[in-house]
């Protein structure tokens, strides 16, 4: 399932579920899944920027 138990977290705090895809190959839990390492750096950059922006917003609210 795409959301797993994430909906329970969203009942308590705001959030978003993000899928980082690398094409129409095998899904995450498939035995033949093989991560496309070229996607790791852009995904890491995305999450770093997301965290940075969240910290800025928290600082502005304080």
Approximately what portion of the residues adopt beta-strand conformation?
under 5%
Unreliable spans: none
Total domain count = 1
Percent helix among the residues? 40-55%
Description:
- The chain is flat, with a radius of gyration of 15 Å.
- It has 62 residues and is mostly helical.
- The mean pLDDT is 87.
- The protein has one domain.
- Helices cover 44% and strands 0% of the residues.
List its salient traits:
mainly alpha; 2 helices; 0% strand
Q: Could you outline the blueprint of secondary structure elements for this entry?
A:
Elements: H1 6-10, H2 40-61
Short description:
By secondary structure, this protein is mainly α. It has helices at 6-10, 40-61.
